[in-house]
Amino acid sequence: MARDDSSETATGSPLVGAPLLPTMFRLAVPGIIGSLIQMLLIVVEIFLLNRAGTTALAAVATVFPLVMLAHMLSAGAIGGATSGAVARALGSRDLVRAGSILRSAVFIALFGGAVMGALVSIFGPTFFYWVGARDDVLAAANAYARIIFFGIPLVWLFNMMCSVLRGAGAMTRSALAMGSVVIVYSALGFWLIPEQGAVNSTTEIMTIAAYILLASYGIGIVTVFNLILLPGQPVRFRGFWVDWSVVTALLRSGLLAGTQSTATIVYSLIATGLIGRFSIDWLAGYGLAVRLELVMVPVIFGIGSALIAIVGAYVGAGQRARAIEVAWRGTIANVIIVGTIGLALGLNPSWWCNLSGGDQVAAHCGSTLEILGPFYGFFAAGLGLYFASQGLNTLLWPVIGSLLRALIVASGLWWMTFDWFATPDAILWLVAGAMVFYGVCVALGLRFQAWRT
């Protein structure tokens, strides 16, 4: 039974009524910095595994969509629902409920991570085979995934606790926690991950890399819990009870958002499977390029997390029209930033693709970015509106857009039966078209239905 403490409901969110531009800047800048820190983790991983050879890169590209699904569920979907719930609780001056959300988030993280780990352990090898992993690549992918997903509750717990901080507007603390993960991974990775030829097999290298990643998130959990306990943080641990009505509310919203995350990963798996049919070099090159799209998820999330906090606070305070206005402005900023990055890398793919030392891998990565890069603004529109919708609790259209994008790409399984379509460029243009449809569909659906004012 929750406590009644009127002193804890006297103070509302400082985000309500604050000047928009300075508030967005104050929250978005550390959010973007935190996202860039998370991007750095992926870049460091690519660099370290590139030293182990093309097989290691192909193996991690095979597993990466499922790792990103874990992040998208725990940080973007259920984590985003948690952030939105915290923001609305603070906006309505209910710190008791905010504390209950924190405890519920811990329970959901441990339970959800355990369920996901079990499912990947059972079905993961089939997925990896389906997306094109064979022989040494398949063995390395299985070894990496077996360890990562045994410890995936650590990743879930870290992301859910960071989501609570972001919902309270504590973006800097969330970025500091992510920084601790990157520092530990970089230090241990450069020390312990060997180069190709230094050990007997790529499988051994992937095993070492997996243990290092889990150790890094373990340190991150210690960091984030200490940051929650610091003075000035409004959402606190008060007791150990779990309010099941809060758990149900978070899961109801989070699992709907999770449909969007799952559709995004299914889309990624299908596209990877289609490209993987051409060669291992195409699989590695596309995997390297598509990491940019999945890396942009946290870039969009940097501004999106600020939107969740501000928009949710206004909704909690009963100012829905103002919340919608803020959501559109933040989404436009997302489109400009990510669209510019995508266009720049589409025109200069070597800036990203030279992370790989293989000429063929880099060439196929470049071909991918030249086609997809100019369309990343549409991807940013759809995903940015998804995050804003978590603050407004209007997730239907972002989910519909993601499902339709996955179906468009899945149609490539049929199109490939025609010889004239069975080329890498044709598949890449199909993916680009799906990206455009996604952004336009979500924007129009929200503008003319869910966000009408």
Characterization of the model:
The protein is an all-alpha fold and 453 residues long. The chain has helices at residues 20-50, 54-91, 95-130, 135-150, 152-167, 171-192, 202-229, 244-276, 280-316, 320-347, 350-353, 359-372, 376-392, 396-410, 412-415, 424-450. Mean pLDDT is 84; it is low at 1-11.
Sum this structure up briefly.
The chain is mainly α. The chain contains 16 helices and no strands. The N terminus is likely disordered.
Question: SSE layout and pairings?
Answer:
Blueprint: H1 20-50, H2 54-91, H3 95-130, H4 135-150, H5 152-167, H6 171-192, H7 202-229, H8 244-276, H9 280-316, H10 320-347, H11 350-353, H12 359-372, H13 376-392, H14 396-410, H15 412-415, H16 424-450
Helix pairs in contact: 1-6, 1-9, 2-3, 2-4, 2-5, 2-7, 2-8, 2-9, 2-13, 3-4, 3-5, 3-8, 4-7, 5-6, 5-7, 6-7, 8-9, 8-14, 9-10, 9-12, 9-13, 10-12, 10-13, 12-16, 13-14, 13-16, 14-16
Give the SSE order as H and E letters. HHHHHHHHHHHHHHHH
Q: pLDDT average, as an integer?
A: 84
What is the percentage of strand-forming residues? under 5%
**Helix percentage range:** over 70%
Shape: globular
Span from first to last CA?
38 Å
Structural class: mainly alpha
Q: What's the number of domains? A: 1
- Characterize the largest beta sheet: strand count, sense, and whether it forms a barrel: none
Round the Cα radius of gyration to an integer and report it.
21 Å
Low-confidence stretches: 1-11
Number of helical elements: 16
Please report the total strand number as a whole number.
0
